[in-house]
Amino acid sequence: MRNGVNLVLLFACLFLSLSCREEKSTKNLIYVGPKSELTDIDMVYSDSARTVVRMVTPTQLTLYSEDRVYPKEVKLWFYDKLGNVTSQVRGDSAHFFRQNNSYKLMGNVQIFNVQQGETLKTDEFTWLPEEKRVFTEKPVQIRTKKEIIYGVGMDAAQDFTHYSLRHVSNSVLTVESLPTD
């Protein structure tokens, strides 16, 4: 009888020991993925019931910091007060930083100003929706109807109707007309 009690006590101790270990190991697991994941995003930003910007992207990941990551291509369309598209933007990916309410588009960023027929190319730019402006510190190429302008750094209105380069390189190419991309 004594051996039977000892055996039961041994199994009980072993069981409790294993269950405690198992509990400890699950407490050490920490989830580091996104808070949520949305697909097929087609979002419209409006002001006084008027469309200002439309954004389309296949995936949006929301992090626990409330930042949002757009790991795939992002397309933006900016609209004027009459509802006409003033510019189109695309980038390979983007990141929304909640803390300072800014977007950073990255990778093969192209901006087409519909009204002026100009295309700007850069590696990344930052969009500040509250200030209605965009900027970059990176090299840029602006292609107008008659020029290709190279520079570093740019500041612009969010609809790209007005922009200025911080540093224009000596490489400005002027021609009668340029083929479109």
Automatic annotation (TrEMBL):
InterPro entries: LipoPS_assembly_LptC-rel, LptC. One of its GO terms (cellular component) is plasma membrane. It comes from Aquirufa rosea. GO terms for molecular function: lipopolysaccharide transmembrane transporter activity. It comes from the Bacteria. This is LPS export ABC transporter periplasmic protein LptC. The lineage of its organism: Bacteria, Pseudomonadati, Bacteroidota, Cytophagia, Cytophagales. Pfam families: LptC. Signal peptide: none annotated.
